[in-house]
Write a structure and sequence with these properties.
- Belongs to the peptidase S8 family.
- InterPro entries: Fervidolysin-like_N_prodom, Peptidase_S8/S53_dom, Peptidase_S8/S53_dom_sf, Peptidase_S8/S53_subtilisin, Peptidase_S8_Asp-AS, Peptidase_S8_His-AS, Peptidase_S8_Ser-AS, Peptidase_S8_subtilisin-rel.
- The active site is at 192 (charge relay system), 245 (charge relay system), 410 (charge relay system).
- Helix content is 29%, strand content 20%.
- With 469 residues, it is α/β, with parallel strands linked by helices.
- The chain folds into two domains: 51-116, Ribosomal protein S6/Translation elongation factor EF1B (Alpha-Beta Plaits, 2-Layer Sandwich); 129-465, Rossmann fold, CATH 3.40.50.
- α5 runs parallel beside α8 (409-426) and α6 (286-302) packs parallel to α7.
- The longest helix is centred in the N-terminal third of the chain and has 39 residues, at 6-44.
- 50% of the residues are buried.
Length: 469
């Protein structure tokens, strides 16, 4: 090779190598983006008919609603029995969702119409951390501690300063457990991606429909054998989690305590009712969330003692239909605990729903880290976020019998739901108004939360259940 041309050939070779590397990276990133797009397109595909939520005025009879839908070449998919007049309608003549919404809004018989919005899980800012019981921090020598081998990692329940945390920056679970460890007579609905109801640390605390209560019946969907809850994604009775998020939430509320495996939930004894409205990719719709709430109300009326719905998700879009469904849950004595969101924003100015609905049964929850500081990702709001709870580096149950640490207001909300269940284990007839007031009054004031949230404090489980100091 000519020495004069060698640098040119070398430069070309280097350029080709770099180009190939860049192309490979772009290909990998494209595949990642394509995977994400596929998950979203499951709900947004133009091949799917536009779906809208329409609430008709009280004087409009069911047959008249049928006639209106037929005249507009639409099909009624579902009627939400808990909210009179609320109807799920699918377009059948190829219109886009805004056109369908406007058609119904223009009619005098309609109170409101809105798209069936997509809802997704809030992003996490910390990397999930798988945990192995063989490498967990050792438990203390306190004989009152549960024998769950990973309890030493659960700083939210007992903060001994592990991993450089602040001693005492916890919910005082140990003192609360001297008064109650929960009850199987209390049912908490986890409205999420479902729950791994076969997880060894959850299986004994999963709700099972009693033989004395008939299977769920929906006039449009038919009879559903809801042995362990409800799946609104596939309209069946199998709410098995394929994402992991709902299983993590469930473990915080009620992983079986003192059973020699894994972790301890805030309630050692409780009944978790799995509700699946999100897919494996972490996407759902307002329609599916509402159908799950409708299911809970039906089961409550049938005699199931379900008193709490946990909602560890949210959206910046306000849905009047979802708000109406949560309002009806209040009428049935059901508390609705919601994550405030992970945008680090003031929700007084930028609302995050459903946590930002101003309803008497809603509690909006911010997240704290192991130093009793507001987590960097947590939303806050002096008027719109009510209470705080541990939500960073929270260890809980995961898919296939495993355990992982996750961070988010998604992890803080079930702490409040768990404490609410402890209170109800002692006072099952407490009204939703009094239960909510009890929780908001049972806080430890923190300087870091002053002017940030309504109560200015972190939940204290011992105070909520009346355990002595």
């Amino acid at each position: 090779m000519n020495r004069k041309t060698f640098p040119i050939h070398l430069s070309l070779a280097i350029a080709l190598v770099l180009l190939a590397a860049i192309a490979g990276q772009l290909r990998r990133e494209w595949h990642k983006a394509a995977d994400a797009t596929v998950r979203v397109s499951e709900l947004r595909s133009p091949r799917r008919p536009a779906e809208v939520l329409v609430r008709f005025r009280p004087n409009v009879a069911p047959q008249e609603i049928e006639n209106i839908a037929r005249a507009l070449h639409d099909q009624i998919e579902d009627r939400i029995e808990a909210v009179p007049g609320l109807t799920v309608i699918a377009d059948e003549d190829g219109l886009d969702v805004d056109q369908v919404v406007n058609q119904y809004r223009a009619r005098a018989e309609v109170e409101y119409a809105e798209p069936n919005y997509v809802i997704s899980l809030d992003p996490e800012f910390d990397q999930p951390r798988p945990s192995n019981p063989d490498y967990a921090l050792p438990n203390s020598d306190d004989p009152d501690e549960p024998d769950d081998p990973m309890f030493g990692e659960q700083w939210a329940l007992r903060n001994s300063g592990q991993r450089d945390g602040k001693v005492g920056a916890d919910i005082a679970a140990m003192r609360a457990w001297t008064k109650t460890i929960g009850s199987h007579e209390v049912v908490v609905a986890v409205l999420d991606s479902g729950v791994d109801y076969l997880h060894p640390d959850l299986i004994n605390n999963i709700w099972t429909r009693p033989e004395s209560i008939a299977a769920y019946h929906d006039p449009e969907l038919g009879v559903i054998d809801d042995r362990h809850g409800y799946n609104a994604v596939d309209n069946n009775g199998d709410p098995m989690d394929e994402n992991g998020h709902g299983t993590h939430v469930a473990g915080i509320i009620g992983a079986e305590g003192d059973n020699g495996i894994g972790i301890a939930g805030i309630n050692w004894n409780v009944r978790i009712m799995p509700l699946k409205f999100m897919s494996a990719g972490g996407f759902g719709t307002t329609k599916a969330a509402i159908e799950c709430i409708n299911y809970v109300i039906d089961r409550k009326r049938a005699g199931v003692p379900v008193r709490i719905i946990n909602a560890s998700w949210g959206s910046t879009r306000r849905s009047r239909a979802l708000e109406d469904a949560i309002r009806r849950a209040n009428d049935e004595g059901i508390l609705f605990v919601a994550a405030s969101g992970n945008a680090g924003s003031n929700t007084d100015l930028s609302p995050h729903y459903p946590a930002s609905y101003q309803l008497p049964n809603v509690i909006s929850v911010a997240a704290l880290n192991r130093h009793d500081q507001l987590a960097s990702f947590s939303n806050y709001g002096p008027r719109s976020v009510h209470i705080a709870a541990p939500g960073a580096e929270i260890l809980s149950t995961w898919l296939n019998g495993s355990y992982e640490e996750h961070s988010g207001t998604s992890m803080a909300a079930p702490v409040i739901s768990g404490v609410a269940a402890l209170v109800l284990s002692l006072e099952p007839d407490l009204s939703v108004r009094d239960l909510r007031a009890r929780l908001l009054a049972s806080v430890d004031q923190l300087e870091s939360l002053k002017g940030k949230i309504v109560t200015g404090g972190r939940i204290n489980a011992a105070r909520a259940v009346g355990a002595s100091d």
